[in-house]
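Trying the structure run again after the queue cleared.
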Amino acid sequence: MSRFLVSKYQAMQEYTPGEQPTDRSYIKLNTNESPYPPSESVLKAVNSDEASLLRLYPDPTCKRLKAKMASLYGLKPENIFISNSSDDMLNLAFMAFASDEKKAYFADITYGFYEVFSALHSVKTEIIPLKDDFTIDISDYMNLEPGLIVIANPNAPTGLAISTDEIKKICRSNPESVVIIDEAYVNFGAESALPLIWESDNLIVTRTFSKAMSMAGARLGYAMACPELINDLEKMKYSTNPYSVNRITLAAGEAAADDINYYRINCRRIIQTRQSTMKKLAELGFEFTDSKANFIFCRTDKMPGEKIFDELKSRGILVRRFNKDKISDYLRISIGTDDDMKALISALEDILKEA
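Done. Tokens:
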């Protein structure tokens, strides 16, 4: 780092994204992308007249996309916030609802950006350990000091989910705190907290187009909440980057919203592939969590996770591994096509035989 970097950022540990290597062709099962392409209408939208208008700023209000998302979920446009990825939205939320006086609360094993945003904005933080089986003990989230509570549901990288009844209890016991339920993976088998926004004025539900909507490269996210909380997020957006969502991404998002059934079918396919892959992994001696996401979180006593990770990479298959003590032996394996997962199982069979 240079000598000019502000001192409070010098020790900050930035987020580490999954590998995107270019040295060879890989089967990428490391970043939870969809194995299926966007719908045809999305591809047409990307190549539409919007491209010829790139000299003009995009609509900062995202009016058309808000209307489509509101219609999709039975909401009003004022219940919708559109952002450049759900990461962007979460960043604004940490700015808006947490500080050196108002704590941010989140799990010790969860999406790594929560800790980064806390450090970035000098937020007072309380990290709440998961139980030994990686589940959340909701009693740990009851009656906290006012602040920001963030729960990924399903959680990453464990894939485990909590119920809407549990989320309701958390919201009700913390009326002076904003509760964010990060539903990046909710379309793969978990129960959405969205119906609770009508009775919980402190709840924000966030989602992304990256996973279920096959648009990780477009960078598009959204939040749903009462109008007052949406206005808070809009205030932060207009104070930092009002034109955060580009024209082509907006057009792609609008087309994807119109093609929701295409994506629902793909999600069902991913769930089926996940279940069949888990069965194969069990036959190889792996144990895993009950994932409700588009990935599997697993380990085996037959070989250390780091060794399996390296052996898979040498065979052209990328998965994700984390260096935290509790989970260093686990692999997070994104769900690819059926052929991708057959290649994974075949490689694991060879690796374990050689061991």
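Residues 35 and 92 are 30 Å apart (CA to CA). Worth checking whether this holds up in the mutant runs.
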